[in-house]
Write a structure and sequence with these properties.
Shape: globular
Strand content: 15-25%
Keywords: Lyase, Pyridoxal phosphate
Cofactor: pyridoxal 5'-phosphate
Family: Belongs to the ACC deaminase/D-cysteine desulfhydrase family.
EC number: 4.4.1.15
Number of strands: 10
Strand order of the largest sheet: 1-2-10-7-8-9
Bound molecules: pyridoxal-5'-phosphate
Largest sheet: 6 strands, mixed
Oligomer: single chain
Distance between the termini: 59 Å
Order of helices and strands: EHEHEHEHHEHEHEHEHEHHE
InterPro entries: ACCD_DCysDesulf, D-Cys_desShydrase, TrpB-like_PALP, TrpB-like_PALP_sf
Structural class: alpha/beta
Length: about 325
């Protein structure tokens, strides 16, 4: 795959490390490695950096002077888009949807929201369930009427251009495991707006890697999640010039770990955050990576990965912890010796 045919900004810190997790592996009885896409750079990193390398290059090529996107209040994608816009000298306007109903001060002003504003982005808030796609078009038209050149990025940066970032990740990861002689049986990660999984599955299929990929859902029910990933993978493969490489059965999502809904922490996710933090010194976030890790942990405990080597793709998001401090009870860590 010849990714240099597509405009791209080289701003991510790549390759991201592939690390062993010996203490977690021992705990779960499965050999678990972690691909550190929480370390991609640009405002603390995360999976949106790889997508934005391609999206923001397209924005620049089109002569955009303002970029717009949308997401949940604690959107990592919004924060990283704001950082890219700052780097390129573009304005950034973000539409935030209240998907949780939380009125805690930290949820609404700390974590990703604080960083959006520090990068100079403007934000606008909408109630949950609002038609954010229509809202973004309306706002973009307003700016265009003022003579601005607007580049609109869909939620999560999930379109064929953004998914190229995860085709790139699939190539990078396969190179790393081949160089080290590591045979990988499964790749697991949190899936949401679907660009990460769609790009990975397209890249893996195009290279004929034969490594099953499992997305752990964070929002949609399984049929919808898998269909979203598949539809985007089909378009991504077409863009890449290898139409038809992804088959429907290559797309697998397990949505048993969503809990009560998007952005609402689960008990298993909070446990996953503690386990990764205490055994490996790695920070997860309650919205995505912790739900992904809670699926990894539960399936490992149930023997799903018996005698396998699993790579967990860490998609980032730890900045969100500072908006979710209320979800953690850590008073017992204050002690008198
Ligand atoms: C956006 C995001 C995801 C989900 O990735 P998609 O490409 O939207 O499916 C996972 N983890 C984190 C931390 C994210 O910010």
């Amino acid at each position: 795959m010849h990714l240099s045919r597509f405009p791209r900004l080289h701003l991510a810190h790549l390759p991201t490390p592939l690390e062993h997790m010996p203490r977690l592996s021992k705990e779960l009885g499965t050999d678990i490695w972690i691909k550190r896409d929480d370390c991609t750079g640009m405002s603390t990193g995360g999976n949106k950096t790889r997508k934005l390398e391609f999206l923001m290059a397209e924005a620049e090529a089109q002569g955009a002077d303002v970029v717009m996107t949308q997401g949940a209040t604690q959107s990592n994608h919004a924060r990283q888009t704001a950082a890219f816009a700052a780097k390129l000298g573009m304005d950034c306007h973000i539409l935030l949807e209240d998907r949780t109903g939380y009125n805690n001060a930290n949820y609404n002003t700390n974590g990703n929201v604080l960083l959006d504003h520090l990068h100079g982005a403007t934000t606008e808030k909408f109630p949950g369930g609002h038609d954010m796609v229509a809202e973004m078009e309306r706002a973009a038209e307003m700016l265009r009427a003022e003579g601005r050149k607007v580049y609109v990025i869909p939620g999560g940066g999930s379109n064929p251009t953004g998914a190229l970032g995860y085709v790139n990740c699939a190539m990078e990861l396969l190179g790393q495991v081949n160089d080290r002689g590591l045979k990988v049986d499964r790749i697991v990660h949190a899936t949401g707006s679907s660009g990460t999984q769609a790009g990975l599955v397209t890249g893996l299929c195009a290279m004929n890697a034969n490594i099953p990929l499992l997305g752990i859902g964070t929002r949609a029910p399984q049929p919808k999640q898998e269909q979203m990933v598949y539809d985007l993978a089909v378009k991504t493969a077409e863009k890449l010039g290898c139409p038809g490489v992804v088959r429907r059965e290559d797309v697998a999502a397990n949505t048993d770990y969503v809990g009560e809904g998007y952005g609402l922490p689960t008990e298993a996710g909070i446990e996953a955050i503690r386990i990764f933090a205490e055994l490996e010194g790695i920070l997860l976030d309650p919205v995505y990576s912790a739900k992904g890790a809670s699926g990894l942990i539960d399936l490992a405990r149930k023997g799903e990965f018996k005698d396998q080597r699993v790579v967990f793709l860490h998609t980032g998001g730890a900045v969100g912890l500072f908006g979710y401090d209320f979800a953690f009870d850590h008073a017992d860590r204050w002690v008198n010796v």
